Amino acid sequence: MTTETRAPAAGKLIESMGRVIVGKRDVIELVIAGLLAGGHILVEDVPGVGKTTLAKSLAKSLGCSFKRIQFTPDLLPADIIGVSVFSQATREFEFRPGPVFANVVLADEVNRTTPKAQSALLECMEEKQVTVDGVTHMLEEPFFVIATENPIEYEGTYRLPEAQLDRFIMRVAIGYPSAADEVAILDDQERRHPLEAVEPVMDRAELVELQQSIKEIYVEDSLKEYIVSLVGGTRDRPDVFLGASPRGSLALRRCGQALAALHGRDYVLPDDIKRVAMPALAHRIAVEPEARARGTTAESVVEELLRSVPVPVTEGRSSPPQGSDRGQ
After folding, report:
1. Under CATH, domain 216-328 is a member of which superfamily?
2. Are 20 and 194 a contacting pair, CB within 8 Å?
3. pLDDT, tens digit, for every residue of 57-77?
4. Tens-digit pLDDT profile for residues 242-269
5. Does a cis peptide bond (omega within 30 degrees of 0) precede residue 73?
6. Rg from Cα positions in the chain
7. Does the N-terminal peptide bond of residue 99 adopt cis geometry, omega within 30 degrees of 0?
8. For the domain bounded by 1-214, which CATH number is listed?
9. What is the pLDDT of residues 205-219, one digit of tens each?
């Protein structure tokens, strides 16, 4: 897929979701960027702002298989990944796939279940496979998890383990709509929900091709060094006891490449990295309790790094210098 076709293809997704999620184009772009980057998205916000609707609008806009898992306190790992059942006919155990076997999986209210059930997603999200009774079952490409969660201060929620959070390429928040947008929402849903009118605008093969083409977006060496400086800065602070891992660096690069593609470019700019830095890094940072008591948050750590780390001056080159490797 070329530069001329990437942006229009992604634009169809943005337009389709924008008919349902009013006034939140920036959030929609980040979600689609995470999808194109081959990662998974965590949507954290208060109840009622459209987290589940956002996920459903994306799923309906894609001509891919879709499953929804409603996470509850009594959910078991087998309810997610599947289970082996003894067949009386064949006298053998047969694997019955769980709802995670789909191209797009909505993990709704993922932090309302126990850590044991949450951990069932770890292998799926990282290795795109499921292991049951010693047998590994591969998940079909593309595989994308979009999870929703309520803030941990809300009743009945469990904190996601750091290893689980690190599997999400970005964490985004929708936020309350403006007064004008809320009036538009009332008008749009007066007779029926706009979600009912959403039709697929991209099939599975197109999505896989688009995801593969994102890897061809050029990233200058100076931008790679900028990414490493931002991520390394999260590890060197005395008020942070867990900084971002190299997975955070990979997330920044991949999301920056996807954002460049959304804007019709085949090269990444510093502004692309700066825009995705907060959603790609903040959830990977754990602040010391004493620092939290002083008002330090993961978000404030990222904000300070964005202010203090020198931004490189790039050449805006659409291709690598001769002899270098593109997309590395």
Report:
1. Magnesium chelatase subunit I, C-Terminal domain (1.10.8.80)
2. yes
3. 898 898 888 899 999 888 998
4. 889 999 999 999 999 999 999 989 899 9
5. no
6. 20
7. no
8. 3.40.50.300
9. 889 899 999 999 999
